[in-house]
Design brief:
By secondary structure, this protein is mainly α. It has 5 helices and 3 strands, in the order αααββααβ. It is elongated, with a radius of gyration of 71 Å. The N and C termini lie far apart (213 Å).
Length: 236
Amino acid sequence: MSHALNYPEPYRVPAGLLALMVHVAFVGLLVVGMRWQSQPPEEFSVELWDSLPVVEPLPEQTSVPAVEPTPVVEAKVETPQAVSADIELREKKVSKVEPAKPTAKELKERKQVEEQRLLEEYAEKRRQALQETMRAEIAAATSAEVGRYQDMIRSKIRRNIVMPPDVPTSAVAEFKVTLLPGGMVMDVRLVKTSGSRVYDDAAERAIYKAQPLPLPTDAGLQKMFRELRLTIKPQE
């Protein structure tokens, strides 16, 4: 009895796996192809135009002018010697230009203007001098008139004093007297005593007794007699 020997085939298993993979790939391709054929076609729309649309031309590009480079100016620095020389040169040019000589007519007009100015200046000085002289004369006349009337007032007051005994001749009483228009006495106030109360009272009573006191007729001078400072002595 003879036995057949079975030897394993080393390439039988890989060949089976390869065949199985080929079948699976083939089936996959069939399925994908069937699904691609079963998809509906994509929709699209068509628009109808009566005329072609007007396409506006693009704006022309404005050309930008080329900017020229600014020239570089070198600063000129002058030395003090150059500046001094320039000044001297200008002064020489100015000194060479002689002013135009005035004509005979211009000289005559200038002389007339100067003479007129001197005459006006002399007239003004004379006018001021006359005014000063007049003011001085008026002041002197006014002072003399005021003094004359003050003497008249004091004399009239002394005539009305009832002289008390034993009054020294050097006694002087000073009063401030306020007068009304017409020479009437409004108020009497003793400013400086004579040293004798009896004489002061006698002089005050004499002032009231002497009213109306003599006043100048000029209205301007009468204003100067509204308040008087009178010194009353026993005798002049």
